[in-house]
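Onboarding guide, step 5: your first structure request.
Type a short instruction followed by the sequence, for example:

Predict the 3D structure of this protein.
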Amino acid sequence: MKKIQSKTGLSNRILLGIIAMILLAVLAGCSSADEAEATEDKEETKRPILIQGPMPIEAETFAERLENVKVEESGSTYEFYIGTVDGYPVIVSKTGKGMENAAASTAIAIEKYNPAAIINQGTSGGHDPELNVFDIVLGERTVNIGSMKTGDRAAGEGIEPTEWKPMDVMASEGSAGEDPNAEKARYYEGDADLLAAANAVKDSYTKGKIVEGTIGSADLWNNEVDRINWFHENYGTSVEEMESASVAMISKAYDVPFLAIRILSNNKTNDGAYNADTAIANQEYVYEVVKEYIASLESE
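The system replies with structure tokens like these:
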């Protein structure tokens, strides 16, 4: 009888040991699952980097480099290619051309995707005779060169564009009067960290030089060289295009870091002929900028 009890006690101890091992395994599995879920949640909470291009030629080369892509649309104009670069969320936005399209697309993207940073990139026309086709301008500043107030001239007194004054649309209270603060060009500064990332990979670009400068934007296409020179002298513009300043304005309103990166596709001040291949070259460089910026974010 005592032997039977001994065997029973031993069996119970073995059974308890097995149960304990199973419980430990279950707990370890739960811990691993919790860690994996936490990692997944962390990945999902990363704020994406938004890359903008006005037209298909200025956006689709970059979009082709994304991994795990899905496409979302807003309205009939705005397209968003949602994917990753080096495992980090990146969205390529095809904004459409012009200040209104760029501003609307930016506001939609900020509200919908909450980006960590915005880079507006694409082609531009040169204002600086020292810059050539395939050179790239990093937007140390962007400025709206289409928001202006004309002089007072009666019928028959003609038109004098060189006398027009800049009108700051963000100083709306003084625009109708003579408030001097409303008659100054507003410059938007490029984000320091994005500029640092862009400068860090300059050597990767071999098709032209890369400089920091002022990017002018307007729903206006200037082909008059004297007019281009006037903007260069009075606004300090390096290039002109039709989107960046409006994106900068919306980005500032939402406190999102912003940088414009524009390549010269032509330059009438030195007879630089238009070259469509510049759009692809710029996207290839911006891709390197994005990878550098991602690395800086991951190291924080």
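Each response can be followed by summary notes, for example: Residues 38-42 have pLDDT under 50 and may be disordered.
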